[in-house]
Amino acid sequence: MPKSTANTVFVRFVPTPMHKVLRHQLEDIFSQIGPIKKSSWINSQQNDASKGYGFVKYVSHDDAKAATSELHNSEIQMDGQDYFLKVELASLQA
Questions:
Q1: Cα separation of 54 and 37, whole Å?
Q2: What pLDDT, on a 0 to 100 scale, did the predictor assign at position 20?
Q3: Which one, of 38, 35, 30, 42, lies nearest residue 72 by Cα?
Q4: Among residues 8, 65, 70, 86, which is most buried (max CB within 10 A)?
């Protein structure tokens, strides 16, 4: 049985961070919307640099939808750098 992506959002930081992004940094941002079941950030295996994207799985589909509307195109600051968030439902990434 395939895994469901109904409660999952796809996240990109623009510009792509040059440093490794830690899961707790991602969860600090997205847990403001609702409870998170799981999160992952994709980093390069060769040099620990960020690949610029990750996934956040919420407990509820409504929270995933709320994250797309509330956080998409928002600006955050992390490690002294400004980023824009691109947030979409992962089910739309197929």
A1: 14
A2: 77
A3: 30
A4: 8
Q: Are 82 and 73 in contact (CB under 8 A)?
A: no
Residue 88 backbone class (left: φ over 0; alpha: ψ -120 to 50; beta: rest)? beta
Element (H, E) at 42: strand 36-43
Quick one: average pLDDT of 58-86? 94
Residue 72 neighbours by CB under 8 Å, 6+ apart: 85, 86, 87, 88
Q: What is the pTM of this model?
A: 0.86
* Strand-by-strand arrangement of the 75-78 sheet: 36-43, 50-58, 8-14, 81-89, 75-78
* Residues sharing a CB contact under 8 Å with residue 58, sequence separation 6 or more, in sequence order: 7, 8, 9, 30, 33, 34, 35, 36, 37, 64, 67
Lowest mean pLDDT among 12-21, 26-35, 76-85: 12-21
